[in-house]
Every structure is written in structure tokens, then in C-alpha cells.
Write a structure and sequence with these properties.
The complex is a heterodimer of chains A (153) and B (560). Helix content of chain A is 42%, strand content 18%. With 153 residues, chain A is of the alpha/beta class. Chain B is built from 20 helices and five strands. The longest helix of chain B is centred in the middle third of the chain and has 35 residues. Chain B is globular. Classes of the chains: A alpha/beta (153), B alpha+beta (560).
């Protein structure tokens, strides 16, 4: 993914450094709130269905405290991202059994092809670096999160 | 299973034996010259029946039991059932007379059609973007291989007494014959060792593109020069240059026009509707250009290759390939078997020793010609050897060139035999050496060491059975396509897929119950996530089916 595309979707407006959610469901709702608030989603209920259906089949909780709930739906007209941090972590049914602390939600149009998994892979790869992860977790401002991720890509 | 497989052998065996019984009973004896048309066509159909069954049987035998490339099995099957083998005994062919073309014109016609299909497909599969990406190393390796093996092949023909002058058609053809690489065989070994994406693997694949294009250009020149030589005796160097530039000119003109009009042709084809129709019409266009090439004193296969090459970059290329694969699979067997049939083992008695010497010289030249530039550019000695040996296998193009030489009267039967011998030897030897030298040790030179994705990541998943694995494989490929990656099958004969996007190259394949994805360490995360998504979608599909069958009523819903 070209760096320009990366910084187009990852802006301070879609980053929440202190999430209030305490459960997996709440976390997903909170991330959808961010997307809806930014005016990206035309049909909130449809977007919700897609993301929860995907979680039902297989959790998107990875390792290193990263979770990547996502879905393909035509309620968005391009790839959109919401980024959330919960320092205490919450149970997201992660692959390594650890609580999740960093959440990246991605929605992209179902009827068009384009980078969707590739975007998630790129963020996830960056966050596998313990230093980047620390920077993101210690950030108090949304801008710091963005620069921690885009500054390196 | 034992019963079923035995039945399979029985069917193939019957396919080989029954037609000959019918032919013998009818007293046909394969006599192709006289007879009414129905009689001749009956003989042709029965011969084709035997050829198809024997070729496929030979291919399976070689691949499954001897672990050798199936093309060799098809070639040998042709030798066995052909006019110089058991053919006359089976009543399938008339005993060949010296100086007479051993097979009927109609059978040769089918083989010619097969050769056009083969090279059209080879052109369609040419990966120009891959070649452009690794153009520097790939070009040098390809050019080095072609130049050195042409010179050595041409010279060896004279040294070993197979030709009487460096410029004689026989020497020129033996030079051309030793240039071609059949990358399909290397690709299969590379994938078995998970080395397709290694620097050596990528260099071999891109080098082979240059090699094919140059080989065809060389063939065009050689056919032109040989035609003049056969017609008017001698030709001055100036004359050779003229003929060569004419051939080169036609090649360049057709390629440029082809490339420029490819999009328009493809748009026109798309208007025809179904991909099946598109594929058939595109094959028609390949035949058209093949005919035009022959009219312009080039070989038909050159025209077919140019057509394929031109269409290889259009959007529809994938669909065209996909729908031509069954045609290709049928014809390729016929082609190799018929080539095997034309080998006159008795005529080769006198040239066996020199044939082996020539084959060795051609092999050494190829390894040196390809390995040399590799050594100079990016690789250490180990890596250069891997690249050189990877370029060794000869296959369809070698035989096609030899076939053009034989049918055009440019080379005698024993030289054709030598070409087949070289094909057999190099294709036998290369995979054996490759299996040994492609290990995990670094093949890059120190300066080139960090020049790109040397480290290989492997993501794999074992599934309960091959069917589920195939299903997952299909899903993985669709996921990649949805990410706007370019997916293509490396060879139509093996289920190895290459996935590319920008700087990324991955290989996806199924081995037994296992789906494997190999890539550079950098793309490993992407590969893993694609795997997860594909898996989730497969699970969802199966769940959906189960849900539908919730009350066990699914089987009652079948409407009949």
C-alpha cells in the first residue's frame, strides 16, 4: 500500500486514544460510532451486521493485543478506518488468549475490489514492532498515533 | 481404489490396442498414400486414438512411478507406438521407407495444429511484467544463455561431424535447438522446493521469457538463412545479414503491431460475448498470424507465439488461457507423442556417441551462458549454478524448432534424433541436479545480498482432505483477486499460482491436504490474513449449507 493511501485513511479524526468500551461488543459499537460520526457509513445497521457476522464465524482478535474487526459492505463508498486504544485491554477472544488493547476497524465496499486485507496487514505488520506498539499505547493525542504509524511507512 | 485405478489402466490399454486390431483386420496397414478419403480418415482417427491414450498413459507412468516430467513419458510413448517402434507390428503404421516422411500428411497436420496451440499458449502465458521487473538480471541471464548456447551448439555440430560448416542449416538448427528453455519443468521443481520466489527462482522465470523471445527470433533468422541456402546453395555473409534483418523486421513489425492493437483486438473479442467464443476466435487469430508468418518465409509457430505474446497483457488473457487449457492438454500430448514418433532410432546408431557429446556441450553451454551473467550481477557461485541449472530443461520449443527443421528439409533424421536426445537428457538431468542444489543456503553474492526478498516466509494449513484444500485454495485466490492482485497459474499442467501486486510476489499451491503460501518475510502478515479470511469464508459457506439442511430436508429440495 502506498504511504499516501495509508495517510489518507488514517487521520487524527478517526483515532480514539481512550476507548470507554469494556467488552468486545461495546468495542465494536464504539469503533462504528467513530465511523458513523465521521459520516462514512450510510447504513449503520447493515455495517454492524457485517462486522458481527464476521466475528461470529471467527474472531479477528490477533496476538500482541491487536484486534482487526472488519467487513465488506456497500454502506461505505471507499476504504474507511477507525482506530481505537484501550490501555487496560479487554477480552476480544484473541488468538494468544491475551486481552486486546489496540483496535483497527476497516470497512470497504463489497461490490468493488481494492486493498482491504492488504491495509489491515500493513497496520498489523507495523504494530508487530514492539517499539511502534509502545509509541501508540503511550500516545495521548490522536496525532501522535497517526505519526507513530505513518511516520514509518 | 485399487479396482478403480486398475479399470483406468484397462481403459487406456484398450484405447491403445483396440484401434490397431481394427486397423490390422481391415488390412489398412497404415498405408497412407492411396485409398479413398474415408479410409484414410479412419486410419487417422484410429492412429489418434492410440496416440492420445499412449501419450497420456506414458505421461502418467513417468510422473507417478518414475517421478519424471510427464512430457518425457509422452515423447517415449510416441517412440514406442510410432512407425519406428511397434507401430508397423501393431498394424498402425506402414513400415517407414528411407527418405520418406514417416507419418501421413494428415497426422502431421494435426501435429502442426498442436504446435500452434502450444506456442500460442506459451505466448499467452509469457509474463512480460515479471520480465520487466527483473529485466536487468533476467535479460542478461537470458541473453547470455541464448548467445553462448547458440554459438556452442553451432560449433559443436561441426566439431562432432554433425554438420559440414558453421553456416550450414544443420549447424544453425543445432545451435537454435540448444537455446530454448522449457521453464515449466523448472517451475515445478522450484515450487516443490518452495523456491519459486527465491532470487534464483525469479531470475530463472524471467530469464526464460527473454530466452523464449530470443530463441524465436533466432529461429526466424535461421529459417530464413536455411531457406536461401537450400534454394540457391551458398550465401554470402552480406546475404545472411539481409535475410536476418528481414526476419527480424517481420518479427519486430508483427510484435509491435500486435502489442499496439492488442487492446482493440481484445475489445472486439469481448463483444463476442462468452469467454469460450473469445478463446476460440483468438485461436483462430493465432492460426491466421501463423499462416501469414509462413507466407513471409518464417515458421508458423513464430506467428502463433507473436499472437499469444501480444494478447498476454490484455485483461481477457486470463480467461483466454483458462478456456484453452483443455484444448492445450489434449494437443500437447499429441504433439510430444508425434515428435517421439519421428525419432528413427536406427538412423541414430551412427550418431549416438556424438549425440551424447553434443548434448553435454549444449548443457554446459547453457549453464555457463546463464550462470555467468548471474555470477557477475547478483549471485555467488552457488546461486549462479542454481540459475544455470534452472535454465537447463528443454521441452516444447526445442522439439518445435527441430520439427520445423525436419519437415522443412533443413535437417536430416539423425539430427532430429540428436535434438530429441538432447531434450531427453537435459530434461532428465536438470530436475535431478536442481533437487540437490536448491537448499536453504544463501545464493546471493555479498554485494547483492540485501538487494531483495531473499528470506522466504511460508504460511501453510493442513486440511482434512484434498477437496477441502482445493476449495480453500480457490477461496484464497479469489481473496487475492478482490485485493486487486494479479493471479496466474504458472503452468497449465500444475496447480501452482503466482500472485503479484507492485513489488510483492507470492506463490500459492496445494500439496496433498495442505494449502501452502510462500512469500517474502515482509508479506507474511498479508499472506496470513488472507488465509484467515479465506478460512472464515469457507467455514461460513459450509455453515450455510448445514443450516439449510437444518431439518434434514436439503435432499428433498432437489427438484427433478
Amino acid at each position: 500500500m502506498p504511504p499516501s493511501e495509508f495517510s489518507r485513511v488514517l487521520t487524527p479524526g478517526v483515532v480514539r486514544t481512550h476507548m470507554s468500551a469494556t467488552t468486545k461488543d461495546e468495542a465494536i459499537h464504539e469503533l462504528l460510532d467513530i465511523l458513523e460520526g465521521a459520516g462514512f457509513v450510510s447504513d449503520r445497521a447493515a455495517a454492524e451486521r457485517v462486522v458481527f457476522e464476521r466475528e461470529r464465524v471467527m474472531s479477528t482478535g490477533m496476538e500482541c493485543g491487536i484486534a482487526i474487526p472488519h467487513g465488506k459492505t456497500d454502506t461505505v463508498d471507499r476504504l474507511v478506518v477507525a482506530f481505537g486504544i484501550k490501555r487496560d485491554g479487554l477480552d476480544f477472544d484473541c488468538a494468544d488468549g491475551q486481552p486486546a488493547r489496540i483496535f483497527i476497524m476497516t470497512l470497504s465496499p463489497a461490490s468493488r475490489s481494492g486493498p482491504h486485507i492488504r491495509f489491515l496487514a500493513e497496520v498489523s505488520r507495523l504494530l508487530h514492532d514492539a517499539r511502534v506498539r509502545e509509541q501508540v499505547l503511550n500516545a495521548t493525542l490522536s496525532e501522535d498515533v497517526v505519526s507513530a504509524l505513518t511516520g514509518r511507512s | 481404489m485399487g479396482g478403480a485405478s486398475r479399470f483406468g489402466w484397462l481403459v487406456a490399454g484398450a484405447g491403445i490396442l483396440l484401434p490397431s486390431v481394427v486397423l490390422a483386420a481391415g488390412g489398412a496397414g497404415g498405408g497412407m498414400d492411396g485409398g479413398d478419403i474415408t479410409h484414410r480418415m479412419t486410419a487417422l482417427v484410429l492412429q489418434l486414438a492410440v496416440i492420445l491414450c499412449a501419450a497420456k498413459l506414458g505421461g502418467v507412468l513417468f510422473e507417478r512411478f518414475l517421478r519424471l516430467p510427464d512430457v518425457l513419458g509422452e515423447l517415449v510413448a510416441g517412440m514406442v507406438v510410432g512407425p519406428y517402434g511397434l507401430g508397423p507390428l501393431l498394424g498402425l503404421f506402414a513400415p517407414p521407407e528411407p527418405g520418406v516422411f514417416p507419418i501421413s500428411p494428415e497426422l502431421y497436420g494435426i501435429a502442426t495444429l498442436a504446435s500452434i496451440v502450444l506456442l500460442y499458449m506459451a505466448g499467452l502465458e509469457t509474463d512480460l511484467s515479471m520480465f520487466l521487473r527483473y529485466s536487468v538480471v533476467g535479460s542478461c541471464v537470458g541473453v547470455g544463455g541464448v548467445v553462448v548456447s547458440f554459438l556452442v551448439g553451432d560449433a559443436a555440430a561441426v566439431w562432432f561431424g554433425l554438420a559440414d560448416g558453421y553456416g550450414s542449416p544443420a549447424a544453425l538448427f543445432l545451435g537454435t535447438i540448444s537455446t530454448a528453455t522449457s521453464v515449466g519443468i523448472s517451475a515445478r521443481v522450484l515450487s516443490r522446493k518452495n523456491k519459486i520466489d527465491s532470487p534464483e527462482g525469479v531470475t530463472v522465470l524471467s530469464g526464460a521469457v527473454v530466452d523464449d523471445v530470443l530463441g524465436i527470433v533466432v529461429l526466424a533468422v535461421v529459417v530464413g538463412v536455411s531457406r536461401v541456402k537450400l534454394g540457391g546453395g551458398s550465401i554470402a555473409w552480406g546475404g545472411i545479414a539481409l535475410v536476418a534483418s528481414k526476419a527480424l523486421g517481420f518479427w519486430l513489425f508483427c510484435s509491435v503491431v500486435g502489442m499496439l492493437s492488442a487492446r482493440r483486438i481484445s475489445k472486439g473479442l469481448e463483444r463476442l460475448g462468452s469467454p469460450q467464443t473469445m478463446a476460440a476466435v483468438s485461436l483462430g487469430l493465432a492460426l491466421l498470424l501463423a499462416g501469414l508468418a509462413e507466407k513471409a518465409s518464417l515458421a508458423m509457430i513464430i506467428g502463433a507465439y507473436i499472437m499469444g505474446l501480444s494478447l498476454s497483457r490484455v485483461d481477457a488473457a486470463h480467461a483466454l488461457r483458462q478456456h484453452l487449457v483443455p484444448v492445450y492438454n489434449t494437443f500437447v500430448g499429441i504433439f510430444f507423442a508425434v515428435m517421439g514418433m519421428m525419432v528413427d532410432l536406427r538412423a541414430m546408431k551412427g550418431v549416438i556417441v556424438v549425440g551424447v557429446l553434443y548434448s553435454l556441450a549444449a548443457m554446459v553451454a547453457k549453464v555457463a551462458g546463464c550462470g555467468g551473467p548471474a555470477l557477475l550481477l547478483r549471485f555467488n557461485l552457488r546461486g549462479a549454478l542454481r540459475v544455470g541449472v534452472g535454465m537447463l530443461p528443454r521441452g516444447e520449443v526445442t522439439l518445435l524448432v527441430a520439427g520445423v527443421g525436419l519437415s522443412g528439409g533443413f535437417i536430416p533424421a539423425e539430427i532430429f534424433g540428436v535434438a530429441v536426445m538432447m531434450t531427453l537428457l537435459s530434461t532428465l538431468v536438470a530436475p535431478l541436479i536442481m533437487m540437490r542444489i536448491y537448499d536453504d543456503r544463501n545464493g546471493l553474492s555479498r554485494e547483492g545480498g540485501d538487494a531483495g526478498g531473499g528470506k522466504t516466509g511460508l504460511v501453510s494449513l493442513e486440511l482434512p482432505n484434498p477437496d477441502v484444500a482445493d476449495f480453500l485454495l480457490g477461496q484464497v485466490l479469489r481473496m487475492f483477486e478482490a485485493e486487486e492482485c494479479y493471479v496466474h497459474q504458472v503452468t497449465p499442467r500444475a496447480p501452482i499460482h503466482q500472485v503479484r501486486k507492485d513489488e510483492m510476489t507470492l506463490t500459492v499451491q496445494r500439496q496433498g491436504n495442505c494449502v501452502q503460501l510462500s512469500c517474502s518475510a515482509e508479506d507474511k502478515e498479508f499472506a496470513r490474513l488472507i488465509f484467515l479470511e479465506a478460512l472464515a469464508s469457507v467455514i461460513k459457506t459450509f455453515e450455510g449449507l448445514r443450516e439449510m439442511d437444518g431439518e434434514g430436508t436439503l435432499r428433498q429440495r432437489i427438484v427433478y
